[in-house]
Amino acid sequence: MITCDKWGNWDKHLYVRVYLGLAAKRGEIPAGVLDRARSLIEFAFPVPPEVIRGREWHGRGVSLFAWTNEPDDSRRPPLLTEHDGRIIGLNGHLADPADVTRLPDDSVGGCFSAWTARDGELSASTAINRVCPVFHTETPDLHVAGSRALLVHLAAREDDRVEHDVLALQTMVRQGFFLSDETPYKGVSALRPSSRLLVRDGARTVTETPLPRAEPVPAAARRRRAAIGELAEALLATVEPLRDLGEPVNLALTGGRDTRVLAALLHAARVPFRVTTNGLDTHPDVIIARMIAARLGVEHTVIAPPQTAAKDAVLVEHPLSRAWETLRTCEGMTSAYETIVSYLPYSGKPTMSGQSGETLRAGSLNLLQTDLGDKALRRRIETTFGKDAKLFTAEANEHARELARPWLDRTDRLEALDHLYIWYKVGRWQASARAGSLRRGDPVRPFLDNRVVRAALSLDQGWRLSEEVIYTLILRLAPKLRDVPIEGKPWRFAAQRTPSRWRRRLPEHLPTARTAGGWSWRTSPGPALTDLLREQVLGSLDALAPIVNPDEVRALFAGPVVAKPALAWHLYTVSTLLTGLYPGKPPENLPRITVSRPDPAR
Known about the structure:
The chain has about 600 residues and is α+β, with helices and mostly antiparallel strands.
């Protein structure tokens, strides 16, 4: 992320920051508890211990610890700030670091969680999408809050034994992330979006601000343009400071919608940038990204995956290595099916990707829908929480139904699915997955900025879901991209009966690019990789038994190639977590795995 001070000077280095707050329920915090907190950071901070620096503050019954891998104290705001008798910590970034004195206040620009302390008082607060998380628990003597779940769990214990909440992990197996405020660690919960945990003189309270309600679609064209204009201004404000960095932003560009918005945004803001696409030359992402780069006149680099000499297979890391790195970085809250950025020495080069761009399109759960009737939307909520019910135990399925119940009780289904996306897909999946990228680079995330999220959620869900909003936004920012094809499905509003105003503005055809190059080793793992996934999962069925039916798991792996690769990876991740792969030393000397293409002629 990019931060600036009140004079407009931009600090282009964002490193990981970790916070831990302790508040005694009575009296003072014992010295042994403080010593233990200091000793735990190497377990919970996924960077080499030699690069960790820390600060701490202690007051009456309250302590606030802060650690970072920042090499010096030049970043603003500092790791801990003192203002008006308060100690303030910031995890994430503010659009203007001078706003640190306003915290906790989730209406300011940026993407952050805030930590404050003074004598007898500790608070931790999340912003609108809680992508910078706060985890909390308590013991008979302490309230504990921190930005890393494992750190909170261990700080609340007297020993180093990790106790897992196995029932909570049922959602990890179903979806590969948490559809709840639970964590893998018993007793540790995630604070909700726009919420504040406050401990004052040993007593804890939690307050929550609801997400914005969407306004109806403006009837007048002028008002529609004004509403989209507010969203455009919020987006532009996130990237305009990048203009004077002295080197171009690297945008990971695909053939889809969300990174196209970012390419248009950087173009409109006159921010120098180049684009990179991962994939084979025949992949739709590569084909369309090349077209976008040409239209905007920017450099385009294609990064192909490692392949055998005959190009009939790819070489991938051993799944145990992949799982260890994912557990270490994401703390068991993201599946190893996902590609998590591994640790490398920090680079100051600013990067950008389209993650969480579905916020501008009413969320990924709504985007899965073709039928927007009440019954169909209700079924989407039910299947989101209760996916693959046959695989799970009765207790796990009942737990899933309990988690779904508050969302099913909402009368506005589009809003429920929209907010589900913010609460869980962004606030849990993205929150844990982005920890990898924060260790090694400058990921700029306009779609996560508070002002952008608030502006988007204030627009009617059906309007955003039609994709009229982002298509208009792209035309406003970069008219040159008007007729560039879209990968996958056509624009939603174009595929439907279009209003007359669109017939005059749309090109004759918005084609969907179709090629034979969309194969991925993760979705077609082949027999060799399947064997490794099978061996681990079936060998740990006792650990998984509280949440899955062993016979159904065996049936899943019955064929030479697993039929549901994502589900297999989710099971693999949870099984390695429960059997103690992490915390622990990384596995060594594991061979890379060859995954053959099912269609090598292509």
